[in-house]
């Protein structure tokens, strides 16, 4: 890689406040200095970013996904817009 053109890549904590879930990973967001920090389980301090949704709160991963009755919608559409024999 060429030096001087890539952003810094370092450890950050992403926190889902709705689910009370946080995880430590690496990101280019670590280069920002205007963010709050948090002390992680290993005793080190990392920048923290709050996210609205994560695997801990997303309906697909939590099993709370709603199934939509698409067959009923299709039948209603066909009944409404089917061609009449007399036309």
TrEMBL record:
| A UniProt-annotated Pfam family | Ribosomal_L31
Swiss-Prot/TrEMBL keywords: Ribonucleoprotein, Ribosomal protein
Q: Name one GO molecular function term.
A: structural constituent of ribosome
Q: Which GO terms describe its cellular component?
A: ribonucleoprotein complex; ribosome
State the superkingdom.
Answer: Bacteria
Any coiled-coil regions, as ranges = none
GO BP annotations of the record are: translation
- Stored InterPro entries: Ribosomal_bL28/bL31-like_sf, Ribosomal_bL31, Ribosomal_bL31_B, Ribosomal_bL31_sf
- Summarize subunit and interaction data from the UniProt record for this chain: Part of the 50S ribosomal subunit.
Q: Which HAMAP family does the record cross-reference, listed alphabetically?
A: Ribosomal_bL31_2
Say which family it is in: Belongs to the bacterial ribosomal protein bL31 family. Type B subfamily.
Q: Which NCBIfam families match?
A: L31, PRK01678.1
Protein's name according to its UniProt entry = Large ribosomal subunit protein bL31B
**Which species is listed as the source?**
Streptomyces sedi
User: What gene name is given for the protein in this entry?
Assistant: rpmE2
